[in-house]
Amino acid sequence: QVQLVESGGGLVQAGGSLRLSCAASGRTFSTYVMGWFRQAPGKEREFVGDIGWSGSNTYYADSVKGRFTISRDNAKNTVYLQMNSLKAEDTAVYYCAARVRDTEAWNYWGQGTQVTVSS
Question: What gap in Å lies between CA 71 and CA 67, rounded to an integer?
Answer without folding.
Answer: 13
